[in-house]
Design brief:
Layout lengths: L18 E2 L4 E2 L4 H31 L17 E4 L6 E5 L3 H15 L4 H7 L51 E6 L15 E6 L1 E3 L5 E3 L1 H4 L2 E4 L26 E5 L8 E8 L15 E9 L4
């Protein structure tokens, strides 16, 4: 047989795979073959990269720098406290300065931007109980938008101005409460501002047994009065549109909370447009935390 397939004689010697000096093949391919493969993948990945960049560019053209194109959010915003401690627990000893100094320092740092001098310098003194609406003129942006003053002194005994320990040393701690920011939210109607109320949290202690620490929570004081988030701080227009926006706060002071025991507290927002809890998030519009103030008798 004179077929070309039979021209090669099987000598029984296996040719090297990594580098074949006779055929000049590297890993079974010649230099030209490797070059064509590398060229193909180079062009292929450049094309994929170009498609990705083009897609991102087109998507960015549809976005508004100042307002989300689509807003999928809960009807009621979440709430948060300061200081929040670990696992939403505030635990300290009135005789151990270091144990509550960390909470006082946290509040100091948080309230720095609320100093009266900074607020007067950066924000407007707005008429209360009305929304501070700043509409755009057609395609002309009314930016940057102004913000209303929230002076630190509004928090009175919980401002840290007259008491640098925020009541922690006396066993009368202050806790600051804030609503999460939601662009365009109007949290009240008919001139009624939303307000915060705190009380004992109902919690489960057995299979069918519930408990709350009503007797231990004691009297509460709210700052500003009645714990209101005044309407003048709404709507919020976004971080880029309102550069100096000062989020309104409510301070709760525990005047005679029981010592040396765990007290479970729950605070919630009360509004004629916002509902607390819901099918999507039962914690919407409320926040829970634990307070334990240790005060040795000796």
């Amino acid at each position: 047989m004179n077929n070309k397939e039979d021209e090669r004689v099987d000598t029984g010697v296996k040719e090297p795979y990594f580098w074949n000096p006779r055929t000049h093949e590297f890993l079974g391919r010649t230099a030209s073959s490797w070059g064509l493969i590398l060229l193909f993948y180079l062009v292929f990945y450049i094309f994929l990269g170009g498609m990705f960049v083009l897609t991102m560019y087109v998507m960015l053209l549809t976005l508004d720098d100042y307002k989300p194109t689509y807003q999928d959010r809960l009807v009621t915003p979440g709430m948060m406290i300061r200081p929040r401690g670990e696992a939403m627990e505030i635990l300290y000893n009135t005789k151990d300065t270091e144990s509550f100094d960390i909470y006082a320092q946290t509040l100091n740092n948080f309230l720095e931007s609320y100093n009266n001098s900074l607020q007067v310098q950066n924000n407007d003194e707005c008429p209360p109980d009305n929304y501070f609406i700043q509409e755009d003129s057609g395609e002309v942006r009314n930016n940057p938008k102004r913000s209303c003053q929230f002076n630190r002194s509004t928090l009175e005994e919980c401002s840290g101005i007259t008491d640098r320990t925020y009541g922690y040393q006396k066993g009368q701690p202050c806790v600051l409460i804030k609503l999460n920011r939601v662009i365009g939210m109007l949290p009240g109607k008919d001139g009624q501002s939303p307000y915060v109320t705190c009380g004992a949290k109902r919690y489960k202690v057995g299979q069918d047994e519930w408990k709350e620490d009503s007797d231990a929570i004691g009297e509460l004081a709210y700052y500003p009065p009645n714990g209101t988030f005044n309407l003048m701080y709404f709507p919020y227009y976004g971080k880029k549109a309102q550069l100096n926006y000062s989020q309104p706060l409510v301070a709760v002071k525990f005047l005679n909370i029981s010592l040396n025991t765990d007290v479970n507290v729950e605070c919630k927002i009360n509004s004629n447009t916002l509902k607390t809890g819901g099918e999507r998030d039962k914690f919407a519009g409320r926040v829970s935390f634990k307070l334990r103030i240790t005060s040795p008798k000796n």
